[in-house]
Known about the structure:
2 domains, 0% strand, mainly alpha, 10 helices
Amino acid sequence: MDKPWYRRAFSHSPTPDLDTARAKADGGDSEAQFGLGLKYSSGPAGAEDYPQAALWYRKAADQSHALAQFNLAVMYSKGQGMPQDNAQALHWFGKAARQGDAAAQYHLGMTHHRASFRGIPNEASESKIEAYKWFQLAAAQGYKGSAAAGETMSLSMTREEVADGDRRTASWVTEKNSCIPAAI
């Protein structure tokens, strides 16, 4: 017997064939590469294949796929499928954040916030301002916890530092919006 209309309307489409996805990914399709990375990194507990996930995320990340860049950064920060490398994690978080990924912006803000606790005062001030900027950008997209993190960050900053952070945030938004082509 045929499925009722409502079951057909709300049923999930079948998952794409792994061979088809791999062929697209091998052909350079960044979305297919990201999909394979996701498949390998989120298998059943204990069945993940992190080295394969990292390989596919890296291929998509090299093509400026922001979510792949973010996921690759997380893998570097945790040492999943590769040795832990905080410098590489920061590099990939930065790439994704500059493309507007709110989660990456939040993580970059947290990295700068932690950096503000060490080092010489000028470097700490710079780290606070950068953390504030990234928290504000993530908050503008509604990323959970970023508004509170920005507010908390501002409590440890001078008025001049907050003003500088606001200028940097506005400048980043203006620069990002100038890169968006006008609608035809």
